[in-house]
Amino acid sequence: MTTWLAKIHVTLKDAVVDPQGLTIQDALHQLHFDSVQRVRMGKYLEVTLDAPDAATAEERVTVMCTTLLANPVIERFNFTVSETMLA
Amino acid sequence: MTTWLAKIHVTLKDAVVDPQGLTIQDALHQLHFDSVQRVRMGKYLEVTLDAPDAATAEERVTVMCTTLLANPVIERFNFTVSETMLA
């Protein structure tokens, strides 16, 4: 059994309002970062899991994302899977 | 003036306890994802900004990260900057 590291990004779909991103954008403007045009906030997860091969690991991560990690109504996700040694 | 997209990852340092990651790990185990060994939770931000060149954009994003976006005591950050058209 090999150990895999999945690096998962969960981001809001473009049409969805992002209050957290807007708040950060306002804060950056107040700190005089006037060149900032737009901030979008997302989640980043690193999941370490066992699986016999990369395809199985990817399949498991996809199911995790659709059942728990992302809300498919308003969010999209993407990830990469690579072989790793557990820390 | 060119528009740049910075993709920023903010993650907890390895020695820092990650209660959010542990909660997600427990939830995945309860959903019978028994192969999951470890979950670490981080933040992912996309910042669109104007700057005359890539070096200036990188410098600005570094200052943003150290002053607002990351807590350098417990978090580390990394980012990439690429040319973009504003959506």
Structure description:
2 copies of one chain form a homodimer. By secondary structure, the first copy, chain A, is of the alpha+beta class. The first copy, chain A, has a domain at 2-16 and 42-83: Mth169, Chain: A, CATH 3.30.1280. Chain A has 2 helices and 3 strands; from the N terminus they run E-H-E-H-E. Chain A has helices spanning 19-30, 54-69; strands at residues 2-12, 36-51, 75-83. The first copy, chain A, has a 3-stranded antiparallel beta sheet. The longest helix of chain A has 16 residues, at 54-69. Chain A is elongated, with a radius of gyration of 17 Å. Chain A starts with a strand and ends with a strand. The mean pLDDT of chain A is 95. Strand 2 (36-51) of chain A pairs antiparallel with strand 2 of chain B, so a sheet runs across the interface.
Give a concise summary:
With 87 residues, chain A is of the alpha+beta class.
* Backbone shape of chain A: elongated
What CATH calls the topology of one domain in chain A is Mth169, Chain: A
CATH class of one domain in chain A: Alpha Beta
Strand arrangement across the biggest beta sheet of chain A: 2-1-3
Oligomer: homodimer
User: How much beta of chain A, percentage-wise?
Assistant: 35-45%
Instruction: Kindly report how far apart the N and C termini of chain A lie.
Output: 16 Å
Low-confidence stretches of chain A: none
**Radius of gyration computed on alpha carbons of chain A:** 17 Å
Number of strands of chain A: 3
Binned, the helix content of chain A reads 25-40%
Main pleated-sheet profile of chain A: 3 strands, antiparallel
Biggest chain-to-chain interface with counts: A-B, 36 and 36 residues
Number of helices in the DSSP assignment of chain A: 2
CATH superfamily of one domain in chain A: Phosphoribosylformylglycinamidine synthase subunit PurS
Given helix and strand content, the structural type of chain A is: alpha+beta
User: What integer is the average pLDDT of chain A?
Assistant: 95
